[in-house]
Each structure stands twice: as C-alpha cells, then as structure tokens.
Amino acid sequence: MSCSYCETTCRCVEFPGTSCGDPSFTGGDGVTYYFHGRKDQDFCIVSDVDLHINAHFIGNHNPVNGRNFTWIQAIGVTFGDHRLFVGARKAVEWEEDEDHIEITFNGEPINIDTANNAQWVSKVQSGLSVQRTDIVNSIKVDFANVFSISANAVPITDEDSKIHSYGKTAKDSLVHLDLRFKFHYLTDVVDGVLGQTYRSNYVNKMNVTAKMPIMGGTPKYFSSGLFSTDCAVSKFQHNGGASHVR
C-alpha cells in the first residue's frame, strides 16, 4: 500500500491506523484527518503505558503561494529499554531501484537482504521481526501481541508537486514514509495524534464535514527528540517494559 499524495479518496487512508502524504491519518474511529506539525520537529503520535511512538516531520515552503507542507520522514518506537528507528533516506533524485529505507534497533543498523520476504529476527527481544514486503522501499515490523507497522518510502514526484502546489525543487525529492499501524493491545489511557483515537471514550472534536479536517493542539504533541517521551500528553512509563509479549 503506497501513495505519494492523499485525498480522502486515496486507498492508503481507508484503514484505521494509516498515515500518508502531507500527513493525513485515519484514526481508530475510522475518521480521516490532517495533522501538519512543523518542519524538522518531532511529535508523539502514540503514547501508552508500554509503548511510545514519535514521528519526525520534514517540510517544504512554497514561496509562490506562501504555504508550508510537511511529511513524516521517520518514526522512533520506544518500548521497555528498546528503541526502534524506521526512516526514509533523503534523496536529491528518486531512484526506483534504490532502497531508501533505514532501520536501526537500539542504535545498531538492521540490514536485510533486498529480496521480497527477506526477514530479520531480533535476538534481544522475543517476538520482534522486520520483513521486506517488496525488494526495496517497503518493510513490515512485527512485535508479537503488541503492534505491526508497515512502512513505504515514497517521493514527491513532479506531478504530485504540480497537482498540490508543493513547490518541490530539483534539490530534494522529499522522500517520506507512508505508514500503516495495527495495534494488538492499547490501554484506555493511550494518547497522541493517532493514539487518542483508539480510546473507548474518545470524542472527535474536529469538523469532520470539512474537506480537510485538521487536528490542532500541535504544542501538546511536541517531543524534544525522536526517542523522547516528554510530550505533554505522554503516558509512557519507563519501567513498563513489553508486558504484553507472550
């Protein structure tokens, strides 16, 4: 599942837990909305007792129309004492056959053969694996009984930029991640840009009849780093561990 831009009709926003493009999210309640964040900053998208996920945003300013656009370039997943990084490498020009996905676990690179279904299995954390879902630029992270994350590295094409007035230049193809999250367990205190929509008592206060429903409150989701758990809505407990792995 991959698309380089998203409207409400785009396939990659039809499923709960999906994020793509100038980032739109489809929440656990099935509602699609936008959260623009800010360029070169990190925001918590899921914060729960045992799990914290931040996203790093890149952006571009179009001086013609004065608009700023953002995309998710990387995610930092924290659970217990472990840190998982999934990112899209910057590229001036997009090469279809080149792998732009970068993955590290506890700071160590994860190298997976460029072959469909090639897999890495952690020797440190039981139940954690990473699998290629295509030869390049598409992977799936599985953490048994906790989550599955599918990530595709995609560029902004000249056509995308023309349609949406992104103002892309020849200096950067604005490679970013289209993501799909599936959570096997979340508590009812979960928060974050996406996480809060999975609470049983979540009340959607956005204007869902708008063409582009936008989630505000940017400052409360700000994190000081990709693996920081210090956003104002953080629920992460450092001693929580991966208690739901069986």
Our Rg estimate from Cα atoms comes to: 17 Å
In whole angstroms, how far apart are the ends?
Answer: 29 Å
| Number of discrete helical segments | 2
Average pLDDT: 90
Number-wise, the strands total: 15
Helix content: under 10%
| Proportion of residues in β-strands | 25-35%
**Widest β-sheet, arrangement of strands:** 3-2-1-14-13-12-11-10
Q: Report on the biggest sheet.
A: 8 strands, antiparallel
What is the approximate shape? Answer: globular
Question: Segments where pLDDT lies below 50 for 5+ residues?
Answer: 1-11
Reading the helices and strands in chain order gives EEEEEEEEEEEEEHEHE
Structural class: mainly beta
Overall description:
The longest helix has 7 residues, at 158-164. It is built from two helices and 15 strands. Strands 3-2-1-14-13-12-11-10 form an eight-stranded antiparallel β-sheet, with no helix packed on it. Strand 8 and strand 9 form a beta hairpin. The two termini are 29 Å apart. The radius of gyration is 17 Å and the shape is globular. By secondary structure, it is mostly beta strands. It holds the Pfam family Root_cap. InterPro entries: Root_cap.
Summarize the SSE layout with pairings.
Elements (H helix, E strand, L loop, with lengths): L17 E3 L3 E3 L5 E3 L7 E6 L4 E11 L4 E13 L2 E7 L12 E5 L2 E2 L9 E3 L6 E5 L5 E6 L3 E8 L3 H7 L11 E8 L34 H4 E2 L23
Antiparallel strand pairs: 1-2, 1-14, 2-3, 4-5, 4-15, 5-6, 6-7, 7-8, 8-9, 10-11, 11-12, 12-13, 13-14
InterPro entries: Root_cap
Pfam families: Root_cap
Protein name: Root cap
